[in-house]
User: Which sequence fits this backbone?
């Protein structure tokens, strides 16, 4: 730096310029974290928003999520509600530059510029807000005992703070559901049972799980009936919501593998549930 | 529809009993009567009008535009407009997503390929003209109209005609825009009708679940008491994605047993063939004057 910095644009003479660590190449990240998505450590913090009835903060890899539950609050609408009204809002941070959130509505009305931006994203990785909202609405209305809160409203906010390119949409979906589930548990609002959500990929060749098979997302609770036999007890699980996205392999018959993949998902879901409930129990 | 506690309990009990009976005495696999017409909009390549006995009416139109692109994910655009609903509600967006996903999954994009460089881009506009008053201010979510919308789109796509290309198909080296014949008599169907090997657009079925009973095409009374809804997509004679659980109304929601998901797919497999045959028959009826429709 030979030029004299008369205007002190570079700051004081003893200033050290900011340096950012170089970002690792994408391909490396994808390979490692796709395979180890389920083995990654999950960081959970509950009750981090003091004004909310219940809230949870989740971190899994680069995915940061914040869910908060407000209510039951009195609803001052003119119509009489015999049960609580649920309102769910999903918000993803505007600076999520690595991924584009898809808004179907804008996409349709817009010119080609927008389409071209979206086009290079693999549909498996595209965040579809409407799927998130509709599955959340279904799950929460099935989970919460809304009858117990007449003339009131419950608001749930989900904020996606960060994510990365290597997390599939469906994996993110299960994280979002986990965050909401934990926030609901934290809030103390009456729910039917302890929920847990999981993504299971039923793969014939499990070695290349990312490429081969159909995936299923479930958010489930245990029903009131219990069975000592583990295999029979799988039938006592109840699905709050489920979603099967487009499979990479079109030739497989979804129905033939569905039974096994649901059973598999339920087993994983229960494993996760036992850990989560242990965690919540320790917090008490 | 606002049902009293006694009424809804009666409907629910008769649905979940060992011999399920529906309020309008339909079989579990039976649809309500539908009316449909095709190809009546003069300004669009394909169109359909389909309506339920309860007054729900859906008009779909397919328009084709020539674009220079090879990006297949852009080629189908769907927009759904529901009377009295804003366009940016979750419902509208989600219906759009589901229809678009199901079509993208099943479509044979070679049918849209025009030349080496040019493709047809499809704009599918769907308008729900009327929903029964009972839908509003009640516990209903509107997701049950998905089945009607999907049938409307199917018919519109089946009736869509594309003009005959008169310029050269192999234009990769040549800088020229495609030109078409003015004569609509020589136009061809987007989805060819004669051969058996052609693809079929996806159909989305809505299945209602109460207790251990699965029913197709739930009516308003039934939706009020149903515990769960499942949307299942059917294309090219097999079940495909997206498959998703949907709450049809918020009055009596419960979680769903895993074996009922399989059961609802069995139900769709039973009815899908008949529905497709019926829709194909409708789409092959020729309409000369569009007055006939109204």
Assistant:
């Amino acid at each position: 730096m030979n030029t004299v910095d008369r205007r002190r644009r570079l700051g004081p003479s003893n200033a050290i310029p900011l340096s950012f660590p170089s970002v690792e190449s994408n391909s490396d990240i994808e390979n490692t974290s796709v395979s180890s998505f389920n083995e990654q450590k999950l960081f959970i913090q509950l009750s981090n928003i003091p004004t909310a009835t219940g809230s949870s903060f989740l971190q899994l890899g680069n995915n940061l999520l914040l869910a908060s539950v407000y209510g039951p609050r009195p609803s001052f609408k003119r119509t009489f509600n015999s049960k609580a009204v649920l309102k769910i809002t999903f918000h993803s941070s505007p600076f999520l530059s690595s991924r584009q959130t898809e808004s179907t509505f804008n996409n349709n009305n817009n010119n080609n510029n927008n389409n071209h931006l979206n086009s290079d994203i693999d549909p498996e990785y595209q965040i579809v807000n409407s799927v998130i909202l509709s599955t959340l609405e279904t799950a929460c209305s099935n989970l919460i005992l809304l009858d117990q809160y007449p003339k009131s409203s419950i608001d749930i906010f989900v904020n996606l703070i960060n994510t990365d390119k290597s997390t599939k949409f469906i994996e993110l979906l299960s994280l979002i559901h986990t965050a909401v589930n934990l926030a609901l548990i934290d809030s103390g609002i009456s729910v039917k049972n302890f929920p847990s959500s999981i993504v299971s990929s039923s793969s014939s060749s499990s070695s290349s799980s990312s490429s081969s098979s159909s995936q299923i997302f479930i958010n489930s609770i245990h029903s009131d009936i219990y069975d000592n036999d583990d295999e029979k007890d799988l039938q006592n699980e109840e699905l709050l919501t489920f979603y099967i996205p487009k499979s990479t392999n079109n030739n497989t018959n979804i129905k033939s593998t569905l039974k096994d993949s649901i059973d598999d998902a339920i087993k994983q879901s229960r494993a996760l549930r036992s850990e989560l409930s242990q965690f919540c129990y320790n917090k008490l | 529809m606002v049902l009293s506690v006694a009424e809804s309990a009666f409907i629910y009990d008769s649905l979940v009993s060992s011999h399920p009976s529906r309020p309008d005495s339909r079989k579990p696999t039976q649809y309500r009567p539908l009316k449909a017409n095709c190809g009546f909009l003069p300004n669009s390549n394909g169109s359909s009008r389909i309506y339920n006995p309860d007054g729900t009416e859906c008009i779909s139109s397919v328009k084709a535009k020539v674009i220079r692109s090879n990006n297949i994910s852009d080629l189908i655009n769907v927009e759904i407009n529901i009377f009295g609903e804003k366009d940016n509600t979750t419902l509208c967006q989600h219906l759009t997503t589901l229809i678009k996903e199901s079509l993208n999954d099943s479509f044979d994009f070679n049918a849209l390929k025009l030349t080496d460089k040019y493709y047809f881009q499809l704009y599918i506009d769907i308008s729900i003209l009327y929903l029964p008053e009972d839908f509003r201010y009640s516990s209903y979510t509107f997701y049950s109209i998905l089945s009607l919308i999907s049938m409307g789109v199917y018919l519109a796509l089946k009736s869509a005609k594309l003009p005959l290309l008169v310029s050269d198909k192999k234009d990769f080296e040549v800088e020229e825009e495609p030109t078409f014949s003015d004569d609509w008599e020589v136009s061809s169907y987007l989805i060819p009708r004669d051969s058996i090997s052609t693809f079929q657009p996806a159909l989305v079925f809505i299945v209602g679940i109460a207790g251990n009973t699965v029913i197709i095409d739930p009516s308003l009374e039934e939706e009020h008491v149903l515990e769960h809804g499942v949307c299942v997509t059917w294309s090219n004679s097999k079940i495909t994605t997206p498959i998703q659980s949907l709450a049809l109304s918020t009055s009596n929601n419960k979680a769903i047993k895993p074996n009922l998901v399989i059961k609802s797919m069995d139900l769709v497999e039973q009815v899908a063939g008949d529905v497709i045959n019926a829709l194909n028959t409708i789409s092959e009826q020729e309409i000369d004057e569009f007055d006939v429709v109204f």
